[in-house]
Description:
The complex is a heterotrimer.
Chain A: H1 3-22, E1 44-50, H2 56-66, E2 69-75, H3 78-86, E3 95-98, H4 100-108, E4 112-113, E5 137-138, E6 141-142, E7 145-151, E8 153-157, E9 180-183, H5 188-199, H6 213-226, E10 230-234, H7 237-245, E11 251-254, H8 256-264, E12 269-272, E13 278-288, H9 294-304, H10 307-317, E14 320-321, H11 326-333, H12 337-340, H13 346-352, E15 353-355, H14 373-384
Parallel strand pairs in A: 1-2, 1-3, 9-10, 9-11, 13-15
Antiparallel strand pairs in A: 3-13, 4-13, 5-6, 7-13, 7-14, 8-11, 8-12
Helix pairs in contact in A: 3-4, 5-6, 6-14, 7-8, 10-11
Chain B: H1 2-6, H2 16-26, H3 28-57, E1 61-62, E2 69-70, H4 76-83, H5 86-119, H6 122-137, H7 140-151, H8 156-163, H9 175-200, H10 203-211, H11 216-245, H12 248-253, H13 261-270, H14 275-298
Antiparallel strand pairs in B: 1-2
Chain C: H1 10-19, E1 23-34, E2 37-48, E3 52-56, H2 63-71, E4 78-83, E5 86-87, E6 98-101, H3 113-123, H4 131-141, H5 157-169, E7 175-179, H6 187-204, E8 207-212, H7 215-221, E9 224-229, E10 232-237, H8 239-244, H9 249-254, E11 259-263, E12 266-270, E13 276-278, E14 289-301, E15 305-312, E16 317-323, E17 339-345, E18 350-351
Parallel strand pairs in C: 3-8, 3-9, 6-7, 7-8
Antiparallel strand pairs in C: 1-2, 1-4, 4-5, 9-10, 11-12, 12-18, 13-17, 14-15, 14-17, 15-16
Helix pairs in contact in C: 3-4, 3-5, 4-5
Amino acid sequence: MTRTHRSRLWLSSASLGLFMLSSSGIAAPVAPHYPSSIGKGEGQLNIIAWEGYAQPEWVKPFEKETGCRVNAKYAGSSDEMVALMRQGGGSQYDLVSASGDASLRLIYGGIVQPVNVKLIPDYENFLPELQSPPNNTINGIHYGISYEWGPNVLLYNTDKVSPEPTSWAAIYSEQYKGRITVPDNPIQIADAALYLMAHKPELGIKDPYELTRKQLDAAVALLKKQRPLIKKYWALASDEIELFKNGDVVIGAAWPYQTNALKAAGTPVADTVPEEGATGWSDTWMLSAKAKHPNCAYKWMRYASTPMVQAQQAIYFGETPANKKACSVMNKLEPGSCQKYHLDAPASYFDKIKFWKTPRKQCSDGRNNCTSISQWQQAWQSVMQ
Amino acid sequence: MALDKALPLGEPQQSPLRSLAIAVWRRPALGASALLAGPMGWLVLIYLAALATLFISAFWSVNDFTGEIVHSWTLDNFRQLVESSVYPHIALRTIGIAFAVTLTDIVLAFPLAYFMARIARPKLRAALFAMVLLPLWSSYLARVYAWRLILSHDGVLNWFLLELGLPRAHIGYTNWAMWIVFSYIWLPFMVMPIYAAIERIPGSFLEASQDLGGRGLRTLRKVILPLAMPGVIAGSIFTFSLTLGDYITPVLVGGPGSNFIGNVVFSNVGIANNIPFAAAFATVPLVVMAIYLFIARRLGAFEMM
Amino acid sequence: MTSNPNLESPAEDTVKSLDKAPVLVRLSQIHKHYKGTTAVEHVDLDIRQGEFFTFLGPSGSGKTTTLRMIAGFEKPDRGHITINGADITRLPPFERDVNTVFQDYALFPHMTVADNVAYGLQAKRVAKRDIPDRVAEALRMVRLDSFADRLPSQLSGGQRQRVALARAIVNHPQVLLLDEPLGALDLKLRQQMQVELQRIQREVGITFIYVTHDQEEALVMSDRIAVFANGRIEQMGTPVELYERPATEFVANFLGTSNVLQRHGKKWLVRPERIRINPTKPVLDMQSYHVESGVLREVEFIGMFTRYIVTLSDGSTLLIHEQNLDGFTVREQVRREESVWVSWSLASAYELPA
């Protein structure tokens, strides 16, 4: 090959690279252009959801009613959801069940578009806290419809752990050394921050997702101290289920979903929200800025907000609906479940939960000294090693 | 005459296929380029372009919040790699385990390959082949999960140890577990090239060594080992690079402090959407492999191939 | 040693002195079977100190298997092998004081010529400081002194052959085994190496056991030859004995070509070069000559001689070699499909043992 050949090749592959990368970065939030009504369905709907969010019990009737065939892709983490939504220029999927730590990234990444809540009748019946929550509503513009929410719980083996733990200290102390599991997820830093809020008030943490460098360092120090106690950082819910089943761990941070699955499998477990409170999730159905099937998507958001679907989903996963009217349906499906998941008295319970949101450089008080998700990511890397 | 009609050598028929065939015969380079056009095009476009893209993007950065890539040249990614206490540590762990796995596989594969190539009768050899290759028929994930079941707290290994009245082994979710699992899953990639290399050594070489007074150990050290070296090197390139680039096994069987370069790359692409940093870290295994191949070449590993 | 070894017959002048040489290698009642087939059976052999002994036979006759049993690469099922009276039947190859030159030379491709030659010395733990001198001496003997640092792949076939030889003789073994060592060389080189091998054998005085399927090679080089067929030794003796007094038709035909004729219920052997051909009946002493007529079937000019094929009255076919001397030749006086006369001296006909 001659010299010119070589340099031309270099240039062409370089420009190809530039093209590939530049297409993945999109600018700021998408401006609203609402439909005034829901039109005829496009016959198909592609969604990204948490595992257990597209069960046939409620997907089948939807397909029958609307003629929109649902293709669901399960994602294992918020990060995977964001990555999937970016895929193929953002037109591959119509909807995503984004949690609070993904929603702002999707909004500010220009990946999702505002939603007209007037087209969702049950919106009126939502808990007031979930009508315009900061994780999906910016300057009064709704970038999605709230769905379900719940706390990250302290899961433990009832045979091996007694008495019932009442504090997150159980996973930061030597008592269960080598038999503890927590998620492999940078947002886990917020759990440490929540613990420090209660036990080290002098740090002045007000919001576990808004940490100054110093506060972040304190949380990381706690997590580094925790690392030798950990048996395994779990990446998938099924991993944690297996760890408990096989006796590798006896206590850890979990979702109620794992509790339900382990109980169903006969493993002696229970979960609790300790005295410090808990981090948690609040999910939102968000509409892709380049959705190919917007009518089916609106039909889904309307359908998923109805008391029946909200109740079915809540009982299946072990979480709490956004729609207050789901309470009676829940009790019909599983007596006492409305109370079990705190939908009857939500306000106090709601306050106990610090919902996931994306850490940003700009704190909510306007100052610019908070730490960003990428700093959290690097901090988490230094914990994980 | 009839013979002339049967062999119309005087006036060739002008079919395009025929003239093409003749042109290729006259200029062998033409044939070679036709042969290589496809694979070379693939190699250049897909492979080299991807590598170039990776390398270039390593010098960019990413907007913290929106995830947009900032196309301005910076060495920050590399500075962060070098200055952080975490990343060199992870790189060293990755390389160290890849090295240990490679050594282990050489030690395990060599006697097995030797037995298969030189001692086993055809039937036994076929059976051993099947056993070595059988794991490759099942999914990589299934095999790693199987090891997880074996090594877990209430797993097969500990059940066995308890049956024997021994204490439990705490191997599950540690670097030891990774070492074992990697050594297991990449073993076929070491056995096959060593087998091929040993099988190619003429039997008379071994007889000559014995004839000249060489006992087993000398024959092994001076004749078999040097001649099997290309196979060992080929196998070690497989096991080393496969381990170096893996990120699934650390997630599945590793414990706290088991992250590999691949895990950091994966989480930077997936979680932080920081492709430039991922690209910068991904150049580390690339450079390590380049050094590895360079040393192998200097040792003359490719001369006997 | 003479200046031109080509001119003298080694068989003639060394055999006498070897007659009294002590037995070095003895094979007694060696049997070897491979899964249902017999490779070697009833092999008894005495090879004397300093002898150039050849195993001659077609492929599959058991000659190589016998050699490999002496080297230790195969174990006989029955029988014993002794060297200098010591039983080595169960000794591994590396404990035997024999060395082998392999058919494919088996030079180690990753070692230089010098390293190849030094291999045996190192294995036998010869003092390090002596090794270079002995290697150089061996290479000088095979005239490859200037090739010490080459790799085998950089040598020609004949050179590799000589390295293989040097690698064996450098160890001064009691017996050197050569397994068709010249088989891969072309004719010219082969003849050159035959001379070379004889010279080297005489120089080092080591007993050679040489395996070949080439009868001419066997005749030229050997003190004694054992002819193998179907796993047995058909006949053993000096080249002259084997050629002049073959014990069987097989030996007669394997060493040179022969005419075997049935006369008076017995088998007679006449070598083609001992028969004369005439267009007319020759006038000869009938007491000492046999004369007979036949029909000439073929005349072939071979170069050094002319070959005639004649059918005799009893239907048997006779092969005749007539040396092409200057001047007179029968070739121009005879025609195909016409009658000719053949004759040979009665002393030239040899009665095959029954």
